[in-house]
């Protein structure tokens, strides 16, 4: 089939409509198309890009966040196929091509690029139609509305967006950021109003990273080559803690909403001198807020003072990278091999520049958190273990089999989620929550977490209910707005886990159509069908 951008002012037809082009949305569309070749599947990419994969491709996040359990990657299915072909540290264009080739097998799957949700028709808690408008990035770098209009009726809809846009605008209850944390661990203003979301990042490219001759662990640095021969690294904690230039940099610019953290970075494919770097924290970004929505009901009315839109954050972060002090601080992230005296890391790096002389950055922000869907009703401080399909306790204390804190999820399991509970700070002061700079910050922001056992030791069963919003009956939510508490989200937010949720949403949408039931009405027999189909697609359901 041909991947196209839809023509203006027309109606697109889809039995299943997937909104969002990240790993989760692509997995949902692929699994739906494969499970129901007689049904029309439409995948809508809201960002002004022409590639699939979202944050994991056009966003530059090419360092795949996996954590082995018993020596294995448990996040299988669509992600497992893509991972096997791309490797852990991959060329972003190559990964986009791998995903596109996978989806192109299915003639019943159509893709429309660069159309965002402007309005929708909802009747009796069912989405009847999406109203989309084209988007593009103007010469200033702002994402703005274009002239193209699309009407998209459908039967089952899937929200795989980063900002939970479809879920929110349909009228479902959501909690923002860490609003479900224990009240005693939240700043007072966040117990009275909307809570903050984790800091965002703008991925950027550098050249000149120096690696050792072979994979090595040197002090706090780890240099790794994946099965495809591509380099990845993680390090810089000691410089973050004690280097005078790094500390001075963060002291000066933290109050302005920017900080340099210990980095992880990956070469843009084997033998590439270009690396994507995850190192710049951008604070006070509200993922729900887009400048093109200002003045409409789509724009959140409860932003905290000083919060910026995603558009402002992208523009300001790209400009900030050109600050000479940033490059000076970044170059302090280096390590000396005591055996040879050689220095490795970022000492000699330069920013990669585009044809206009601007830093090469991700086309979309690396958003870490936006909103979360409760099972039903209101949420608030202290509800993280009572109001969500995946609770904080379930994620942290999942068992090695079906007998852990997540045991109740087992009958309705639709995959496994596994990583570390990894918080990248909410405000600049979090970087010094212990009294001095320290990393990671999770243990300081959540001291109760350490008392409860620290990092998860086992994968968590992801239940079907995590895909259900509180109100809309023909909507499934495998994206950022899934039914996961904020602290559990710290583990499950990584792209492999989201792809697992996406596979399940696609198959569940097919079952919903096949049985003429709303997703929330699927019973144990239906979920067993979903489970069998997922296993046939390579998804791992057992520990």
What can you tell me about this protein's structure?
With 543 residues, the protein is an alpha+beta fold. It is 24% helix and 21% strand. The chain has helices at residues 23-35, 78-86, 92-103, 165-169, 188-192, 237-242, 244-253, 310-320, 324-330, 392-396, 442-445, 447-451, 486-492, 495-515, 524-536; strands at 10-11, 16-19, 41-45, 109-113, 115-123, 126-137, 143-153, 156-159, 175-176, 200-201, 204-207, 216-218, 221-225, 231-235, 258-267, 274-282, 334-336, 343-345, 350-351, 371-372, 413-417, 460-463, 475-476. Strands 10, 11, 12, 13, 14, 15, 16 and 19 form an eight-stranded antiparallel sheet that branches.
Note the topology.
Blueprint (H helix, E strand, L loop, with lengths): L9 E2 L4 E4 L3 H13 L5 E5 L32 H9 L5 H12 L5 E5 L1 E9 L2 E12 L5 E11 L2 E4 L5 H5 L5 E2 L11 H5 L7 E2 L2 E4 L8 E3 L2 E5 L5 E5 L1 H6 L1 H10 L4 E10 L6 E9 L27 H11 L3 H7 L3 E3 L6 E3 L4 E2 L19 E2 L19 H5 L16 E5 L24 H4 L1 H5 L8 E4 L11 E2 L9 H7 L2 H21 L8 H13 L7
Parallel strand pairs: 1-7, 2-3, 2-8, 3-4, 8-23
Antiparallel strand pairs: 5-6, 6-7, 9-20, 10-16, 11-16, 11-19, 12-13, 13-14, 14-15, 15-16, 17-18, 21-22
Helix pairs in contact: 1-14, 14-15
